[in-house]
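Colleagues,

For the teaching module next term, I've prepared a clean inverse folding example: a structure given as tokens, and then the sequence designed for it. I'd like students to try predicting residues themselves before seeing the answer, so please don't circulate the second half yet.
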């Protein structure tokens, strides 16, 4: 078993585990009453962002193991155009999703700062 196999197993475990956690979280939210939904609404969004980040990170690891599999003995890559396009697309989507997560985090922090400043005595 080489490093590409280990990366693939870890990536698939992360993807499947995150998918199960997201499904369980959605089912628990559907069973919650209205008052509890208000309380867990923002926290649930942060957790969902984390789980989706894990899913896309796992997808990136799957693509990285695919690239490692195509590496030749002399260090040259024998990638088909489909494998190269899939890898480039996955890197692009992971970058977009990472940017989205960072933007949402920054928006939450800015909201918390505004709330703290509005509560502070002048």
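(Answer key — instructors only)
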């Amino acid at each position: 078993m080489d490093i590409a196999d280990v990366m693939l197993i870890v990536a698939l475990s992360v993807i499947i585990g995150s998918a199960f956690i997201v499904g369980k979280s959605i089912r628990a939210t559907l069973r919650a009453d209205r008052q509890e939904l208000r309380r867990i609404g923002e926290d649930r969004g942060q957790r969902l962002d984390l789980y989706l980040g894990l899913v896309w990170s796992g997808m990136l690891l799957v693509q990285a193991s695919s690239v490692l599999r195509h590496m030749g003995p002399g260090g040259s890559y024998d990638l088909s155009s489909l494998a190269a396009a899939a890898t480039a697309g996955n890197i692009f989507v992971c970058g977009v999703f990472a940017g989205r997560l960072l933007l949402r985090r920054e928006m939450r922090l800015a909201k918390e700062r505004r709330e703290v400043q509005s509560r502070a005595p002048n």
